[in-house]
Design a protein that fits this description.
Elements: H1 4-37, H2 47-56, H3 72-106, H4 111-138, H5 146-197, H6 201-223, H7 225-246
Helix pairs in contact: 2-3, 3-4, 3-5, 6-7
C-alpha cells in the first residue's frame, strides 16, 4: 500500500519553496521598477522632440477657428533637428559606457548610476525607432537616410563651434599683443628720455677711469720695483767709484 502522506510532504515542500521564490521575485522586480522610475534621468528634457510633437499636434485654442495644417517642410526640418539631438546623445552614451562599466567593476560608482545609464540607453533606442517611423510617415524611405543627414549636420555644428572659438582666441591674442607692444614702446621711450636728461653720465664715467689710470702710473713711478732697482744700481755705482778713487 502506497503511503500518500510521505509522498505529499516533499511535493508540498517544493510547492511552498517555488511559491515563495516567485513571490520574492515579483516583489523584487516591482520594487526595482519603482526605484528606477524615481531615478533622475541621465539626459535633460528633449526640447527638439517637444517642438516636433507640438507642431505635429498643433490645435487651435478653444473658441477659435481651426488653424491651417503645418507644412511638411517645417515638420521635416523639426524632425531633422530632433534626429541631430539624438545623434548627440548617442555619441555621449557610447563615449561614457566603457568608462562607466570599468568604474562599476571597481566599485567606484553606485549601482543607481548604472541603472540610470541603462535606462537612458533604452530611451534612446525607443527614440530612434520613433524618429524612423515619423520620417517614413512624412516621406517614404526617408527613415533610412535621416540619421546620415543628421550626422552631417552635427559635424558641421561642431566645426562651426570650433571656428568661432578660434576666432575669439585670435581676437584675445591680438589684444594681448597690442598691450604688450604699447608697454614695450613706453619702456623704450622712457629710456630715451632718461638718456636725454642726463647726457654727462657717460663722460663722467670715462673721466673717472682716466684719473684712476693716472694715479696708478704715479704710484708705479714713485714706489714701484723698477724705481727701487734703479736707485740700488745708482748707489752701487757711486760706491764703486769711491773705492776706485781711494785705490
Amino acid at each position: 500500500m502506497v503511503d500518500w502522506v510521505s509522498l505529499t510532504i516533499p511535493f508540498a515542500y517544493l510547492g511552498i519553496l517555488i511559491g515563495s521564490l516567485a513571490t520574492f521575485s515579483s516583489l523584487y522586480r516591482k520594487r526595482k521598477a519603482a526605484k528606477s522610475s524615481t531615478l533622475e534621468p541621465w539626459f535633460g528634457p528633449n526640447v527638439q522632440r517637444d517642438i516636433y510633437l507640438s507642431l505635429l499636434h498643433l490645435e487651435p485654442e478653444p473658441g477659435k477657428e481651426k488653424l491651417p495644417a503645418v507644412p511638411d517642410g517645417v515638420l521635416k526640418a523639426a524632425l531633422l533637428h530632433r534626429a541631430v539631438e539624438d545623434i548627440r546623445r548617442i555619441l555621449e552614451v557610447r563615449n561614457a559606457k566603457q568608462a562607466l562599466s570599468n568604474l562599476l567593476q571597481r566599485g567606484s560608482v553606485a549601482d543607481d548610476l548604472w541603472q540610470r545609464f541603462l535606462r537612458a540607453e533604452k530611451e534612446i533606442e525607443a527614440e530612434l525607432r520613433d524618429v524612423v517611423e515619423e520620417a517614413n510617415a512624412l516621406q517614404s524611405g526617408w527613415g533610412q537616410n535621416i540619421f546620415q543627414s543628421a550626422n552631417e549636420m552635427h559635424h558641421n555644428a561642431i566645426l562651426r563651434e570650433k571656428l568661432i572659438a578660434i576666432q575669439a582666441q585670435g581676437k584675445s591674442d591680438k589684444e594681448w599683443w597690442q598691450q604688450e607692444k604699447a608697454s614695450i614702446q613706453s619702456k623704450f621711450m622712457k629710456e630715451l628720455e632718461e638718456g636725454e636728461k642726463d647726457p654727462q653720465k657717460p663722460a663722467s664715467t670715462l673721466g673717472g677711469d682716466k684719473v684712476g689710470s693716472d694715479e696708478d702710473t704715479v704710484l708705479v713711478e714713485s714706489g714701484g720695483p723698477i724705481a727701487s732697482g734703479a736707485l740700488s744700481t745708482s748707489k752701487g755705482g757711486t760706491s764703486k767709484k769711491r773705492k776706485g778713487g781711494k785705490k
